[in-house]
Amino acid sequence: SVMSKTELNVEYGASSIVRGRSSFKHPDAPGPGARMPNTHTVRLGPDDGWKSTPLHGLAFCCGHTVLLLGGPDADGPNFVQLYKAVSDFVAAEAGVFEAAFAFATDPSITSLSGKIGLLESSTVDAFGVDGIVMLVVRPDGFIGLREGDADGEAEKAFPEQLSKYSSKILRGL
Fold first, then answer.
1. For the segment 56-97, what is each residue's pLDDT rounded down to a tens digit?
2. What is the pTM of this model?
3. Of the candidates 67, 58, 52, 148, which has an alpha carbon nearest to the alpha carbon of residue 104?
4. Do residues 99 and 39 touch, judged by C-beta distance below 8 A?
């Protein structure tokens, strides 16, 4: 079939090198092992001139890319703090991670940090984001980790989850 020839039906959900879980409330949202959808556009933050860019395009690099997505229930100051913690971790683990980006639906959150961009509500719906979700996109365009969204407590563990993911990748290489 065309799907198998183009490998568009490849899915790594059962792989040992993906972590996290799919969204319980949003079972159709892309989870660990799924290909990153290429149909969503985001706007980079004020520091980057609100430039529109494909969300999946941000992850086309040699290392793993961390995306922090803030939905309608995201707490602004908490989101900014998480983004800083995640960015610091990504900078420290440059051997695995390439970049971290953050996007929120609430424009007031972008005013708290010039690096935080805007997310359209259609993207939030497609990814099943109510509060805050962290995705790690592998260099091959597949989602290697999905965390958060279930409850606010999970968010505090994002850097720890990145650390577990990173050590799993390094062990696997």
1. 999 887 899 999 999 999 999 999 999 999 999 999 988 899
2. 0.84
3. 67
4. no
